[in-house]
Specification:
Largest sheet: 6 strands, mixed
Number of helices: 15
Number of strands: 20
Structural class: alpha/beta
Strand order of the largest sheet: 1-2-6-3-7-19
Shape: globular
Distance between the termini: 21 Å
Helix content: 25-40%
Radius of gyration: 24 Å
Strand content: 15-25%
């Protein structure tokens, strides 16, 4: 019989209670982009920690509050959990099968905005803690939580907080906000995040829109001006044309390439899921696709706005145009470096009138795949999932892991409840209840093994 039989039995018999708590949590809106419900959710988060015997403090920032909780364990060895309580905007509302802030269970899944990203990960960790406390009366190691309310808007106040509270947050290891299984239901260990530099580019060529017949031949058009500026950033060969953009790009190591080679080829699954017929630069799949996916930086137009876009026609010459652009960064690029090079590029190309507004950014960071804590977490997945985790050295997304790795000097690992169909950031966001249970079982084993090693 498993050493965790009683803990697992507790989790199985109390699953409905935990899902009810998660449902209440998700029913409380907390949309950072709209400054909706953040204070209320921070207080709700703090109360959930207090109910587990955590000493809790809510720290105000110039944005959303940061919630900190700590409970001592048998061992002074300390695990720090990073989560966030803010969620993406729920729009477009008409694409939800049930209202985003009215959690609903259908076909073994719980649907709600934020249920996967990131409220379900937080409550599943509390669920594991409940089971350990119920069976042992104390935690096997010291546990700290830090939860922010601005992760979905680039974590503007997190890095300064971590740097100024490094002693408070001191830990031996950190478990990140997410984790889960891939399309084969194999648990995955994601060890690194790309960085990001998010900007808005804007240009104004007149003080008002004008009749296109009047201005089309003799006045500058803001939309064309911006399109030409954007066209200067990247060529049809997908190479980013900003001078010096690739200077600090670090190629993947042999160890990282070997880890990527061990992963399944995602090409056909991507084509099926996203409905694309081919990939850029002639890539067809295999290791070259896996390398390009995460170890090549990007320049992505995320949105364009100018002129008239309503029904029918309106013969107008736009006076203003703007575009949202993100750059995904790889080691050792930084947002500050990219901003400087972007400004220099636009000036050199004759687009000094194009304004750059920095909307947020984070540097990339990686955890050593051979760190002992990584191996502990990977092996702790064996019983809940029937196999150890498979290591992914870096993923394409971004997050504030850099400040944890560089300031707190901790390995950062992932362990959670996600699955490829979770629809995070999209309508009908969901979690699978079976994975919620397995995720809690995994966390319980990590805490126990860490406290005893």
């Amino acid at each position: 019989m498993s050493h965790f039989a009683r803990v697992d039995a507790y989790l199985q018999s109390h699953l409905d209670d935990s899902i009810s708590e998660l449902s209440r949590y998700c029913a409380q809106p907390s949309v950072s982009a709209q400054n909706w419900g953040l204070q209320e959710t921070a207080e709700m988060t703090a109360e959930m920690l207090r109910q587990r015997g955590f000493e809790v403090k809510i720290f105000p920032t110039d944005g959303a509050p940061i919630v900190y909780g700590e409970r001592k364990g048998r061992s002074p060895k300390t695990i720090l959990f990073y989560n966030h309580y803010d969620v993406q905007p729920p729009e477009p509302l008409e694409l939800w099968d049930t209202p985003p802030f009215e959690p609903a269970i259908r076909d073994g899944k719980l649907y709600a905005r934020g249920v996967s990203d990131d409220k379900g990960h937080f409550t599943s960790r509390l669920f594991a803690i409940d089971a350990l406390l119920a069976e042992e009366g104390e935690l096997p190691c010291t546990v700290k939580f830090i939860l922010e309310g601005e992760e979905e808007t680039s974590s503007a106040h997190l890095a300064p907080f971590v740097r100024s509270h490094a002693e408070l947050l001191k830990a031996d290891a950190c478990i990140w906000e997410f984790g889960g299984v891939d399309f084969r239901d194999v648990p995955m260990q994601y060890l690194g995040l790309r960085g990001i530099c998010y900007v808005e580019l804007s240009v104004e060529t007149a003080n008002q829109d004008m009749h296109s017949g009047l201005g089309g031949s003799i006045m500058p058009n803001a939309a064309w001006r911006l399109v030409w500026a954007l066209n200067s950033l990247k060529g049809p060969d997908e190479a980013i044309r900003i001078r010096g953009f690739y200077d600090n790009v670090r190629k993947p190591t042999e160890r990282e390439i070997a880890l990527l080679e061990a992963l399944p080829d995602p090409a056909e699954e991507y084509k099926t899921r996203y409905g694309v017929k081919s990939f850029l630069k002639g890539l067809t799949g295999g290791t070259p696709l896996k390398i390009a996916e995460v170890y090549e930086p990007t320049c992505t137009i995320c949105g364009l706005t100018s002129g008239y876009q309503g029904p029918g026609s309106k013969t107008v010459q736009p006076a203003k145009a703007s575009a949202k652009v993100d750059f995904r960064l790889v080691p050792y690029q930084t947002p500050e470096e990219v901003l400087e090079k972007l400004r220099a590029h636009l000036d050199a190309e004759g687009f000094g009138d194009v304004q750059i507004t920095f909307l947020g950014g984070e540097a990339p960071a990686l955890t050593d795949p051979d760190d002992p804590f990584v191996q502990l977490v990977v092996e702790a997945a064996l019983e809940p999932y029937g196999q150890p985790m498979q290591i992914v050295p870096m993923v394409g997304g971004s997050g504030p892991n850099h400040v944890f790795i560089e300031t707190l000097k901790v390995p950062v690992v992932t362990a959670g409840i996600g699955h490829p169909g979770s629809q995070a950031h999209a309508p009908n966001e969901n979690i699978r209840l079976d994975l919620y249970l397995k995720g809690a079982m995994h966390i319980a084993r990590i805490l126990k093994a860490f406290g005893e090693n």
